Amino acid sequence: MSSHKDFVAHNEKYAQERHRPNLPTPPSKKLLIVTCMDSRIDNFDSLGLQLGEAHIIRNAGGAAKDALRSIIISQRMLGTREIALFHHTGCGLLTFTTPQLREKIKAELGPNANAETSEVLEKMEFLEFSDLEASVKEDVEFLRNHPLVLKETTVTGWIFRVEDGRIHQVV
Amino acid sequence: MSSHKDFVAHNEKYAQERHRPNLPTPPSKKLLIVTCMDSRIDNFDSLGLQLGEAHIIRNAGGAAKDALRSIIISQRMLGTREIALFHHTGCGLLTFTTPQLREKIKAELGPNANAETSEVLEKMEFLEFSDLEASVKEDVEFLRNHPLVLKETTVTGWIFRVEDGRIHQVV
To answer: Would you say the ipTM is above 0.95?
Structure first.
């Protein structure tokens, strides 16, 4: 495994030809995107974003709950006031449940699973979902009602289709 | 606030001209990137990544601890075996401490801060850092030693410079 060895040559070309230096830290569109870590999603290209315009939070599934620390920092320290949350078709989070993944990891760890590791694992929620559209609605509701998310925030919820690259707004 | 109104037109052009459909869910390079939500970082362009190659986790700072749920899913369910973690110059996480941000939010909430909200806030760690290079080393160590991260994982740590778009490897 050494994909990182390709980074430097690609990056030098990027730095010389396409990077925009001297942009301010607060995103110019006051926009925050929450989306999945999935390899088939390029937020800049698929949404027409430019450097400097939006914070982008990515985690397994695009889970709002897991993004909360970052959202608070984005809003309180760096002025974002709009959140667009995306989940997507073909997401890995549609394929397992937390108890199943816990059991799989316990089996893989075997005798390496000490009491502390087992405890961390038992407390970990993997935030999977079984209904894609419902999961978007639930996450948007979570953000709209959370006491630490600013009341004046515009929150929208979307689905990205990996099959054709198209988005549609759910809520 | 209505930046989301621009998404659909941009996206239609993307879907027609540049999206790659029918890529498998597991990233082809077995690579996982962890980086900050900062608006000045485009991981695809700055590292020369293509759709389908790598998971990308982004949160405030590029914090390894906050990425753990996603990393476990990426490794156990979708086969990634290399992690490249990036922090960057000019990061918002260099500008405050958790106690300062808690106080700021409490002041902004004023009488809206009920007991439950205050308790959530008191438990929240914002994972700031004061030394950029040290923060990269600490996060790489965290991943290399974590019992739920696979032992055979290649973990590297990097700094991205927003001033000129260049990266350099720290560890």
So the answer is: yes
